[in-house]
Amino acid sequence: EVQLVESGGGLVQAGGSLRLSCAASGFTFDDYAIGWFRQAPGKEREGVSCISTGDGSTYYTDSVKGRFTISSDNAKNTVYLQMNSLKPEDTAVYYCAAIPVISQSYGDYEEMMRAQNVGFWGQGTQVTVSS
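Predicted structure:
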């Protein structure tokens, strides 16, 4: 059974930090890039960050560059998203996602980080940043 289990969300004041975790099981970890998407009320789901579990290359959307850091522990099949200097506009449900990279090819990370390319989704974890 494929599972992506997120943890680490919560309520934090602006300027604070949170670390999200995504534990993956039930599929070949190296065959997928693991990313984080978020969806705020009334908005579309957007790609936030992604890591290639094979070579460790990373992607960040412009609004989180310099504040968020993605990393992976391949021995534990777990990906982390360290979020610092949080802002109220970071408030959203954050979803872990597995994107196939062996069976599919993409032009770049911008093209890859689209919801329709996701193979598996986690259940989501709420992040709320108060002002």
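Summary: The first strand starts at residue 3 and ends at 7.
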